[in-house]
Amino acid sequence: MPQAFRSICVFCGARAGVNPAYASEARDVGVMLARNGWRLVYGAGDIGIMGEVARAALEAGAATMGVIPTHLMSREQGRTDLATLVITETMHERKKVMFANSDAILVLPGGAGSLDEFFEVLTWRQLGLHGKPILLLNSSGYWTPLADLIEHIIAQGFAEPNLREFFEMVPDLEMLETRLIAALG
Ligand code: AMP
Known about the structure:
Layout: E1 7-11, H1 20-35, E2 39-42, H2 48-59, E3 64-69, E4 84-88, H3 91-100, E5 104-107, H4 112-126, E6 134-137, H5 144-155, E7 168-170, H6 173-184
Parallel strand pairs: 1-2, 1-5, 2-3, 3-4, 5-6, 6-7
């Protein structure tokens, strides 16, 4: 039987951020997904670095799946040219569908939405509800304050030290690709 299609769920900003390196690294991620034959699962929008990942992935020939709630179709410029587009009723449903269709989770720089998505999959992992790898790409050190916050949470006794083991922060694209290949084959 052929090996199952590997899909990476990418959570990231619907904005570009102030540092052009974020968008540039997001495009590199899109190309990296295509190079490895992995499918991009994402929020279906055409804005911010979310749009950059998808554009680069599509141009490089990656398979794509977008998941977006009806009410965000115009605000986030939902793409209708993806191999698969799922339109949901709610934000909760969006996260559920993205998660269910992915083998690994990747978080690029983003805002409150990306944090919401990250913490949801992290807490599910903490509860033993799944074992999917969760990787954060620390583009230009963007997520370092988040790593510090998690250390603070552990130090103050609001999480077990093993919370650290449920996600991995990688410094660059090379390390990200190495980790994903090791996890997904
Ligand atoms: P942000 O990181 O704030 O730019 O948001 C990134 C993406 O997450 C955007 O597509 C938002 O629409 C989406 N988002 C924000 N909050 C939620 C949520 N509670 N459930 C699902 N998606 C969300």
